[in-house]
Hints:
Strand content: 15-25%
Order of helices and strands: EHEHHHHEEHEEEHEEHHEEEHEEHEHEEH
Structural class: alpha/beta
Distance between the termini: 40 Å
Strand order of the largest sheet: 3-5-2-1-8-10-11-9
Bound molecules: aspartic acid
Oligomer: single chain
Amino acid sequence: MIKVVKFGGSSLANAEQFRKVVDIIRSDEDRRFVIPSAPGKRFSGDEKVTDMLYDVFRLYEEGKDFTDRLAAIRERYEEIRSAFDVPVDLEREFETIAENIRSGAGRDYVASRGEYLNGRLLAAILGFEFVDPAEIIVFHEDGQFNMAATDKVLPPRVKQLKNAVIPGFYGADTTGRVVTFSRGGSDVTGSIIAREVNADLYENWTDVSGFLVTDPHIVENPEKISIITYREMRELSYMGASVLHEDAIFPLRSEGIPVNIRNTNEPEDPGTMIVETTCSKPKYTITGIGGKKGFVSVTVEKDMMNSEIGFGRRLLQVFEEAGLSFEHTPSGIDTFCVYVNQEDFEKHEQQVISGIHKAVNPDLVELESDLALIAVVGRGMKANFGTAGRIFAALSHARVNVKMIDQGSSELNIIIGVQNRDFETAIRAIYDIFVLTQL
Ligand code: ASP
């Protein structure tokens, strides 16, 4: 069995965390390919090494002295190196980094050193081969990931290795210039490696034991989700809950590789499995409840709208031209409503209103702001009756006024619009009816 294991920044923030990680890797010899992030925060208020590195680059660009800042980063690695007493020459590594910065190595190169150095240390501690992703993760010159080129160079370099440490977050373009993924991108590296080595499992180790049914800031101690499908996760993540980088999903999903979200601080906890499909039933009919505040509804009314061909297209084109993506479009016979993010909308409000007048000549345009959307997601809904009934009974008991209802055609989710001020009450009411009373 081949497991690709990725450890996030908080899992590798200092020597104490490194110890846990080393134990986890050593406890299972299938954990052959290890993807480290850069050291994250050790305590709340601490700095992530990646942020410190971006700061070093900023100082360099402003023509200021960055040596103290770089020395503070070096201390973070010294603490880890000395705890394990491994022969990694940090003095030389940091000299090289400073030289490269001065000779114009670029922002992505500087940011990538966080992962690079953690990889050097971890490989030395474990006795695994170190593979520099600059050799095997290929980017196009425009900074986009080049899957086809990676497919060619990665497998022959990595597949035959017994085990390896491959730092996350970066690679290089064909000219050899280091390029990073977007923030949190070590997940993406992990998922690419998992795909290229045909892994049986991708473990993503972090500081939470997987997905919770809902936001713990709203419901105290919510239940954990033991299995979730990629589709359910997408529905929930777009509503705010995210444990895995979005771009990490495609390489895994396209190969049907399951992901296990695990907690480095509680290695016994089985965490959450993310799978392509499963016949295992969710414990509570619903899998999760996500949501976001801050939407505006733009309702357009026009007599005989239903017989006007092209009305919807022309209306939505106004939003497109303003660069606004819409969330939902509930409609009635003579009304069409568009839900958009409030902050984005406010920047283009008058452009959109006049655009609508020009495009569809409406009888009335009405705005309502400070709305929240709640997604109740679950593969179990399809096979059960009464799910919607229970949701709305719970909301009516909690005296929440429902502004909008949208059941996705996949029957995987029900989206509910409420006022921002009812957001938390609504989520608690839905959680209670499904999880606490287990109806
Ligand atoms: N170290 C990078 C960041 O802070 C990448 C990662 O941690 O995944 O964004």
